[in-house]
Amino acid sequence: MALAKRIIPCLDIKDGQTVKGTNFVNLRHAGDPVELGKAYSMQGADELVYLDITASHEGRKTFTELVQRVAAEISIPFTVGGGINELADVDRLLHAGADKVSINSAALRRPELIDEIAKHFGSQVCVVAIDAKETSEGWFCYLNGGRIPTERNLFDWAREVCSRGAGEILFTSMNHDGVKNGYANEALARLSEELTIPVIASGGAGSMQHFRDTFLYGKSDAALAASVFHFGEIAIPELKAYLKAEGIQVRI
């Protein structure tokens, strides 16, 4: 039996508040992260992702206290990312109540971190986030919340991440982020074909059809979105009912 497709609201955190931008810039406030998370949990979200979007950039550690507050209030699994550079960071966040951690810049700079997290805490704890942009030369990965380009090809890096023991990949297309024209389904389908671990689609959700399309054509295992949920454009119960009617297996 196929696994149910997951719907994952993402909360980008800056200075303890939820924010949302377009193409990684022009941030606006979207509400209290704990209250939003509680609401999504009650509406039927499968998981949540909290990303401290300035942690890597500013060399800060992820907001541990917020993680403790979230864990106290929310019953569904949640992933925390931002500024995780070593095993001590992972240990601290798991102790605070997170179920998984998401690493991005630190993994690109020192890929061995993936092996270390998988070995110490189990692959299921290690989500590797990949921010990539499509250019005329192909898809390339970016560091520090999309600020710094690298020479790393998306597909080469994703295969390496998989081989090092990551449990999941969270792929954000920077071309699609916040634009609401749909997910990068061609790239997602290729990732799903080449990898043996789940792929979470991120960047581009603007309608319920976009979620359907990323499950059907992008072969995504989960779909992550932010602004359509934060600003009330799509309600999770309606989204799940729509997907079910379209023949996509979801947890209702």
In short:
The protein has helices spanning 33-43, 55-58, 64-73, 87-96, 105-109, 112-121, 154-163, 185-194, 208-216, 227-230, 236-245, and strands at residues 6-14, 17-22, 25-31, 48-52, 78-81, 100-103, 126-135, 138-143, 148-153, 168-173, 199-202, 222-225. By secondary structure, it is α/β, with parallel strands linked by helices.
Give the domain tally: 1
- End-to-end separation in angstroms reads 17 Å
Order of helices and strands: EEEHEHHEHEHHEEEHEHEHEHH
Shape by Cα distribution: globular
* Mean of all residue-level pLDDT scores: 91
CATH architecture: Alpha-Beta Barrel
Report the strand count: 12
CATH H-tier superfamily: Aldolase class I
Strand order of the largest sheet: 1-4-5-6-7-10-11-12
> How much β-strand is present in the residues?
25-35%
CATH class: Alpha Beta
Taking pLDDT < 50 over at least 5 consecutive residues as the criterion, the unreliable ranges are none
**Oligomeric description of these chains:** single chain
